[in-house]
Amino acid sequence: MIHEQSQDINQGVDREKPSEQGAGDQGIMFGYATVETPDYMPLALDLSHRILRELADLRREKNEIPYLRPDAKAQVTIEYGDDQKPLRVDTIVISTQHDPFDADEAQMLLKIKADLINILMPRVIGKLPESTQALFQDNITYHINPTGKFVIGGPHGDTGLTGRKIIVDTYGGYGGHGGGAFSGKDPSKVDRSAAYAARHIAKNLVAAGVTDEALVQLSYAIGVAQPTSIFVNTYGQSKVDLNDAEIAAKLQKLFDLSPYGIEQRLQLRKPIYTETAAYGHMGRTPQVLTKTFESPYNGKVSLEVELFTWEKLDQLEALKKAFNI
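Below the sequence we write its predicted structure tokens.
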């Protein structure tokens, strides 16, 4: 069931010159970065994703925890000091789908909780930097499958999937979010492309040493190519002798933030989105690979694509020069 976009909307997007393409909708998009982790992501979300990747590895190995099924989610709560530095991991919540158990539900839950605490978590913690390992102390509260058994999972078990995970896809509640989901949208929709552009700017800004923490906000009007605003918040952690408005003004000159400019710079018209389906869209590792597609219309097609281009630290020199670092 595919049909054309409304011409009322399309007339504001398509232009005779591609470079004059208007934004596909109005809205506000945010990008965030912090020195808290090596990938410039908030620590709590980074740990949540690490837990789930390790859980998936255990599931595929089928050795130590053979009863795991694919549906799972995790949440980490961290206690911070008055200086906004992490003190300790306070609470870890993990819900994982599993095979039916022969034992009664109480015994089943005890087994799952023991396995995740004693097998999963040591594997996660062992791969962390020593400074982060020190945050895992003896007084962590664990909530493992807190509702009880979790045999039926995925869309079969619960509906409401479309656009649900916008916070998991971004920064776990840090920074800000304009409310637009990414998945299912082509890059003319600035809900997706401008959010990637804002992350690209924020990450490079922090990595270049301009600030230890940055929130970049962009806003657009439907059919208008240039953003209606560029806002920067360095949370008082700027390393340069400029206020946040002056930093934003410099960024506006350094980056083409039109929808077409973003699409070209970040190569967003390539088939690069399958990999964003799990573990978030931000904080990922850029990589180049070849993808092969087969269809009755075009036969077999192989394309070299670059994934997660918005995570590249390719603007460091330009930013250091602009900010005299």
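Residues 43-157 form a domain with the GMP Synthetase; Chain A, domain 3 fold (CATH 3.30.300.10).
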